Amino acid sequence: MEAKSDCDASNQTLYKIYAAIMIVIFILALPLNASVLHLFIFKLKFWKSNSNNIFLFNLVLADILLLFCLPIKAHNFIQGERRSTNDTVCKAMLFMLFLNRGASIAFLTVTSIDRYFNVVHPGRKNLLKALKKSPQISILIWLLLLPLTIPTMLKNFDCCNTTWALTHQSYSDNDVVDSLREVVFFTQIVIPFIILVYCTVRIVNRLRKKTIGDKTKLKRAVFLVTTVMVVFSFCFLPCTIARMVLLITRVQNASEPNQDKAAVAFDGLMVLSYMDCLMDPLVYCFCSTKFKALYLSSYFPFLMKDPQHHEIRSI
């Protein structure tokens, strides 16, 4: 009964609000990302184009796969459950959320690193530059992410099988799987955030030092990395902090009401992280003004002053 109470949504009204937010995100983000995916496949033919198109295609693919999880989570919240009571569904959901959320973060980061090398070290050879014209690096990223999701399948977690690994008892036993899972959760956010901060600072400094010549490319790079930083900070950092607070309350065996409040806050900020699926299209626009022009001319031609001049072959 204690495990069951941990998995129940204590504040059902609040969780129904969470569910409503996820449904709105799903309704808005699915057609938006589907239209972007259509452009990459049928207009840009991303596999024949430059590296940014390949990275961005994988980013939108990860977002769409993540979106398909939202209706199931919303249904659970409406039913007053923090997770599905079906063990298979619960673990499959966690696997999809870990994998596609990690992929979204990874491709956002790789896009910024690629822009960093192009702007700060334009003549320097690097592994990313050598592989960027093939899909190999994207496939490698997906393959590297797969092992990181295995801990969600090895042991009961977050109410799967009516038990919850995030209890002070499991941490007192120094469970390796639980510890590895938390390491994965935090490193897949903290390390990319540090990389993004570094890339942003270096590109901004490069722009300030450039006193002559065309600054358009540098300014566009600044817009890109700044946009990625905003998306990352808004979507992922709050849930990371909430996760840390949740773990602290459980490790310190805080009172049950405080643990419950921390769990509710974490679930709410995880819902906020799904806004990433709506905000990522901003990255596409800041990667290239040509993409923005192509998108508008394809789906909103009435907003274009001269649509016939905006047929873009590649970004």
Automatic annotation (TrEMBL):
Keyword Membrane annotated: yes
GO molecular function term, any single one: G protein-coupled receptor activity
Cellular component, GO, one term: membrane
Pfam families: 7tm_1
SUPFAM superfamilies reported for this sequence: Family A G protein-coupled receptor-like (SSF81321)
PROSITE patterns xref list: G_PROTEIN_RECEP_F1_1 (PS00237), G_PROTEIN_RECEP_F1_2 (PS50262)
Chain ranges of the G-protein coupled receptors family 1 profile domain: 32-284
Keyword GTP-binding attached: no
Keyword annotations from UniProtKB, A to Z: G-protein coupled receptor, Membrane, Receptor, Transducer, Transmembrane, Transmembrane helix
Topology relative to the membrane: Multi-pass membrane protein
Positions of transmembrane segments: 17-42, 54-74, 94-117, 137-154, 183-201, 222-248
Compartment list: Membrane
PANTHER family: 12-(S)-HYDROXY-5,8,10,14-EICOSATETRAENOIC ACID RECEPTOR, HYDROXYCARBOXYLIC ACID RECEPTOR 2
UniProt record similarity statement: Belongs to the G-protein coupled receptor 1 family.
Protein name per the record: G-protein coupled receptors family 1 profile domain-containing protein
Protein species of origin: Mola mola (Ocean sunfish)
